Structure formats: C-alpha cells, structure tokens
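Quick one: examine the sequence and fold tokens given here and explain what the tokens say about the fold. Here goes:
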Amino acid sequence: MSVVINTNTSASLASYNLSSTNVNLQRSLNRLSSGSRINSSFDDAGGTAVAMKFNASIRRTEATLANVNNANSFLATQDGVLKNADKILNRISELATLAQDVSKGTSDLALYQEEVSILQEQLNLMLDEKFNGIDLFGAGATDDMTVVTSHDGAQTVGITQADFATLATAVDAYDVSTTAGATAAVAAIQNDIQTLADMRATNGAQQSRLTFAADMLSINKVNLEASVSRIQDVDVASESSNLARYNILQQAGTAMLAQANQASQSVLRLIS
C-alpha cells in the first residue's frame, strides 16, 4: 500500500464506523430510557403504522366498553323500579284478597281501597323514572334502544324500555271497595303480576347479554394491548446487551480513530 499524506483512508473508515456506532448507541439509550422500541417512524415504519391502528382500536374499545356498562346500569336501574313495582302489586293483591273477607263491612273495604288508591298513585309515579334524563319506560309501547357492542360498530344489542304504562293503566282499574270488585281485582292482578315477571325476566336476560358483551370487549382490549406491546415495547434484556456492545464499540472506535490519525505522522520520519 502506498504511503500518502493527502488522504487518510483508515481514519475516514474508522470515523464512519464510530459514527454508525454512536447512532446505534443513541437509539439503544432512547429505547431503554423510554421503554419503547419505536421512538420515531424511522425505527420501524411498518410497525408504527400497525401500532397506530391498534392504539386507535384500543381507545374505541374502551369507549364502547364504557357505553355498554352505562347501558347495563340503565337496565339495573329499570329493574330496581320493577322490583319495587312487584312489591306494590303483591301488596295490592294481598289487600284485594283481604277485601273478599265476608266479615268485612263497607267501612273496612273503604279503608282497603284507600290504601290501594295510594299504591296506584305510587305505581304511576314510577312511569316518570329516568336514567340520566332518559325514560326508563316506554309510553304505552315497548321501545327498543340500540347498544353498540364492538369497537367498529358492526355489532349491536337491543335493550327495552319496558311497556310499564299499560301495566299501570290496568292496575288503576282495581277497585276493592266492594266484594265483587275485590274478586275481579284478585283475578286480574295475577295476570298483571305475570306481565311484570315477564318484564323483569326480559330485563335480566338483556343485562346478562350486555355483561357477556362487556367481557368480550375487555378480552379484546387485553389482546390488542398485547399486540401493541409486541410491536412497541422494548425487550430490556436484549437492548441492555446491545447497549453494552455499542459502548464497547464506541470506546474501541474512538481509540482506533486516534490511532489512524497518528499513522500519517510516520511519513515525517521519511523526510526528516
């Protein structure tokens, strides 16, 4: 190899290697300090794009899960009202049965009817119950509400604003101030209790379905987070090894660059 002064190829190559080592060392430091394998799109362009989509899906899944839980709370509140309505109907049923007693006079029946009237008023007040401003019950008809149960909006579940108004109207017709009226009320209220039982059964089934939907969303969220972790999170053990290697290469590269810069000085001996 020729001995030259103007060009120091060894020093240039050593400088290039040292520069590459410094870039890798800085990248390794960034990864370990941030805990993320991808700190810029340059680190992994494809992984960045996929992780962005997964992260957006996670946020939508979290929002959908919150909506499903709120819908379940709506149903739970509705069931609480229906449970109290069941107590009212049972009490009215008891009063109507007591009013059939042949030993009861007109004044006694009037007292029974007074309590029945008060309970009827309370039952009608329940029609106006709301959850966050939304009516718990439909007005004379069963109204369905759609609950989205997937982050992409493709899956939905219907929940019901129960037809409580029709039931309340039927109960309003009870009159136990006479024996005949009490007998008719006893016969009618059994059907109305069955209607209320059907409402609660429907409510319970819808709560159960939403609970399973919420569980599925939670599982999907965990799986999406695991996928993002595999793309974005740094393997600390592996990256620590890389850091140690780049540190050694940096020190060696610095020493070799110094040696390469000193090599050209040997020419002075030839011309001295």
